[in-house]
Structures are given as C-alpha cells and as structure tokens.
Design a protein that fits this description.
Organism: Streptomyces sp. R44
Helix content: 40-55%
Largest sheet: 7 strands, mixed
Distance between the termini: 71 Å
Shape: globular
Number of strands: 20
Keywords: NAD, Oxidoreductase
Family: Belongs to the aldehyde dehydrogenase family.
Strand content: 15-25%
GO molecular function: aldehyde dehydrogenase (NAD+) activity
Protein name: Aldehyde dehydrogenase
C-alpha cells in the first residue's frame, strides 16, 4: 500500500526526538568538523539544487503559481549564489585569526578559532520555500553543524520534494527533514538545539523565542513588518515606478521585504499612479491573470484576508479578484492618513495600514514632506527594509540617519536580499540576527578565543599578592593602556 501524506507526517511526528538525537550523535562524533567534510556537504547541497532544477520549478509553480523565470531569479539562483560564494571563501573564514593581547598580559599570544555550534534547526516560510530553507543551510553546513529542516506545510509540493531529495543527497544524515504543521514544529522546538533559524510572522516568532528560552538556545528571527517607500524622484518617475511595481508585485506581493506602502507628497500622487499603471501593464500585461509570470495567493484564508483589506479603500489600479484561482490583481489604493489618528499600527484609520499586507495591495499615503515621512516610519515598529526613490542626496541622508530598519535601499527594492556579501536581517520587531555569506559563518559558529600565556617570564606576579606600591602602580598603568 502506498504511503500517504498523513502516514508520512505521523511518522515524522513520532520520530522527531530520535531525529534530533541522531543529528546530535553525528555532530558529537566529529564527522562534520573537518574542512573537507564541510566542502563535501556544500557540494552535495549544490548538486541537490542543480540536478533537480526542473523539479524545484514545478513545485514552486504548484505551491505559488511561481513562473520559471521568477523561480530561478528569486529562489534557485539565490541559493546557488550563496553556496558558490561560501565555497570560494570557506578556507579563509575557517583559518584561525590572530587576536589582540593587551600590553598588561605580554608576553602572550591569542588566536580566534571558529567552532561549530552543534544541531541547527531551520524553519522555513511558505512564500520563498526554497530560498529561506536552503540559503541559511549553506552557512549551517559551512560552519560544520548538522541541520534539521522544517519546510512549510503551506508549500506542500516543495516540502514533499525536500523530503525526497535530502536523504538522497545527504545519506550520512548531516541534513534531515521533518515535515508537518504546528504539532510537529512544536515538538521540534521542545528539543535541545544549538541554534534556531525561523522565517515568518512576528506572532510565530514570539512562540519560537519562548520555546528557545527553555533551553537558552540562540535564535535568528527573520520576521517582516511594514517596509516603507519614500518617492519624490519626478525626473525618473517611470523608471522608479517600474522598479517599485516589480518589487511589490513579485510573488504576488508575498515577500517579507516587499514595499508595504508608499509615501509621497499629495501633488505627486496622480503622476505616480499613472506611472505604476503603465509599469504593471508593461511587466505583466493588460491581464496578469492570463500571463505566465504573475503568482497566486498561497491559500484561501490569505486570499480572504487580502480581499477584506480592500473594503473602504479607494482602489485606483487593479482590485480584480477570483477566489477559485486565489487570484488578486496587482492593486494600488490611495489612503489618506486619518486626522488625529496614528498613520500606522493597530489604531490606524484604515486596515491596510494596521498590519503587514503581505499581498499585492500597495497603498499610497500622501504626506506633506520627507520629514513627515520619517515621523511616520519612526512612529511604529522598525521595518525589515526601507526604500528611497529620490535624486536628492540630502533626502537620502535624512532617511539613513533618522530612521532604523533592517536595511536601506536606494532606487530599488528586494535586491539586497540577493546580495550575498551583505547581512540580511531585521531589527526590533522585524527580527534579530542576520545571515548570508560571512554573516552566516558568524551566526552559525562560535568564535572561541585561545590565549597562550607562557609561564616564563612570570609577569603575572605583578598582579598577585603580596602587592607592592611600585608593582600596583605599574600594573594599573599597563591595564589602563588598553
């Protein structure tokens, strides 16, 4: 009798403690620590992706209606770039670094040695179910850890594919997969782990952090929030609108760093709306529903939530929707700030300004100036990204110096996530910790100081009793030297 999805999930749930324990035994054996073993694991991960690109594309189409080009550009190629970047630099990262020794401890030598943490759990989100599972995994393996992967149950085709492929490419058990939903994730979080990476909502992030606290397990939380946009670049209006539309409506807006709302002055709103309308048509055609490159909402619950946000909004572009296809057109709404009410947050005047939209609805919020836009940003949670479209250096510096966010990007959106040399992470309510490239290495390694203080000459005698006035004065001077 063939194995059903229910049978497979029940099997995963009952074996979770054994799965984590097996990963722990493998790590404790030392098999993952040698540099050669880490390189082999990275090559295995690269082979798993490159030899199954068509299967990953098909799974992403099934889960999110993600076209082949978008699957490559936003998922598969991002993962491969991360792996290749890591392989090119791994030997340099792994080499012990010379550490500083204060004058008071001379003669002495110090080294900084990177060592793996142990068993790392990676919990994926459904919106980029390949990228946010496998990109951090590259750093986990490079650092010499074992990994347990938890794909999102809301992307079932991708989850099932990961479950089939990982044992084939990692028969040694360096990487293991646990499928399932809330019960399986809860059971995983109850285990003793050495690091947890979670990508998803702030609500679930708090659950993850509370569970991690039971074992004092460090966490990397990639959450989200309302990533704002400022626009005042009249001279390059159409180019900016195209980049803004692409950043917002890629993956049907289901991106944690998607532009969540646009602020501009009232006189610029009509021209920006017209430019966005032209950009959407240019990118996805007159009817995005019929094209191969526009995605769908992940499930009916999310679809109903998003359509509900349109109630009472002034829809100026799009708004068409079809529940049978989970289709919601690229939509732009204008939302005036309610007099005497907060611009953003749970008490804002309109629902689209109360929480992260996470879908293809883009509000345009008129404000008097860039300075007022800064006040709006700072009045609520720190966002995961902030985007500035301006030709003014003064305005750029205004947002860089007077706001706090996971990242600031000028004249583009989303692209910083694919920049392997930069850290990706949030701040405050948008997350904690970061990964990508060398920042993954730092996150999934412990930088251990190793200090060698020779027994002779015994300069430590000056810091030991019985003290003399001369010795104490000398030690104080050396220590304060820094």
């Amino acid at each position: 009798m063939p194995t059903t999805t229910t049978d497979r999930l029940l099997h995963s749930a009952t074996r979770i403690p054994d799965t984590v324990a097996d990963a722990r035994r493998l790590f404790d054996s030392g098999a993952t620590r040698p540099l050669a073993a880490r390189v082999r694991s990275l090559h295995a991960l690269r082979a798993m992706v490159t030899e199954n690109e068509a299967a990953f594309e098909a799974a992403l189409w099934s889960d999110l209606h993600k076209g082949r080009a978008e699957a490559q550009l936003t998922e598969i190629s991002v993962v491969l770039a991360e792996i290749n970047h890591t392989l090119r630099r791994l030997r340099g990262w792994a080499r012990p670094k010379r550490g500083p020794v204060p004058l008071a401890l001379w003669p002495a030598r110090a080294r900084l040695v990177s060592e793996p943490l142990g068993v790392v759990l990676v919990i994926s989100a459904w919106n980029y179910p390949v990228q946010v599972l496998l990109a951090p995994l590259a750093g986990v393996l490079a650092a010499g850890n074992t990994a347990v992967l938890k794909p999102s149950e809301l992307a079932p085709a991708t989850s099932e594919l990961m479950t089939r492929l990982v044992p084939r490419y990692f028969p040694d058990g360096v990487v293991r997969v646990v499928e399932g939903g809330v019960p399986e994730t809860t059971e995983l979080l109850a285990q003793k782990l050495d690091h947890i990476v979670f990508t998803g909502s702030g609500t679930v992030g708090r659950v993850v952090m509370r569970a991690a606290a039971e074992h004092l397990t460090p966490v990397t939380l990639e959450l989200g929030g309302k990533s704002p946009v400022w626009f005042d670049d009249d001279a390059r209006l159409h180019r900016a609108a195209r980049r803004l539309a692409w950043a917002k409506f890629t993956n049907a807006g289901q991106t944690c760093v998607a532009p969540d709302y646009v602020m501009t002055t009232p006189d610029r709103v009509p021209a920006l709306v017209a430019a966005l309308r032209a950009a959407i048509k240019d990118l996805w055609g007159p009817d995005p529903r019929t094209g191969p490159d526009y995605g769908r909402i992940v499930n009916e619950r999310q679809y109903d939530r998003l359509v509900g946000l349109l109630d009472g909004a002034d829809v100026v572009i799009g708004g068409e929707h079809d529940r049978s296809e989970r289709y919601l057109a690229p939509t732009v709404v204008t939302v005036p700030v309610g007099a005497g009410r907060p611009s953003l947050g749970p008490d804002a005047a309109h629902p689209v300004l109360r929480e992260e939209i996470f879908g293809p609805i883009l509000p345009i919020v008129p404000v008097a100036s860039a300075e007022e836009a800064v006040e709006v940003v700072n009045a609520w949670d720190k966002p995961l990204a902030l985007y500035v479209f301006t030709s003014s250096g003064r305005t750029r510096r205004l947002f860089e110096r007077n706001t706090s966010s996971g990242a600031v990007v000028h004249d583009a959106g989303l692209v910083h996530v694919a920049t392997t040399g930069l850290p990706f992470g949030g701040v405050g309510a948008s997350g904690m910790g970061a990964y990508h490239g060398t920042y993954s290495w730092r996150t999934f390694s412990h930088l251990k100081p190793v200090l060698n203080k020779p027994l002779g000459p015994d300069t430590l005698r000056l810091a030991q009793p019985p003290f003399t006035d001369l010795g104490l004065r000398l030690v104080k001077r050396l220590m304060r030297h820094g």
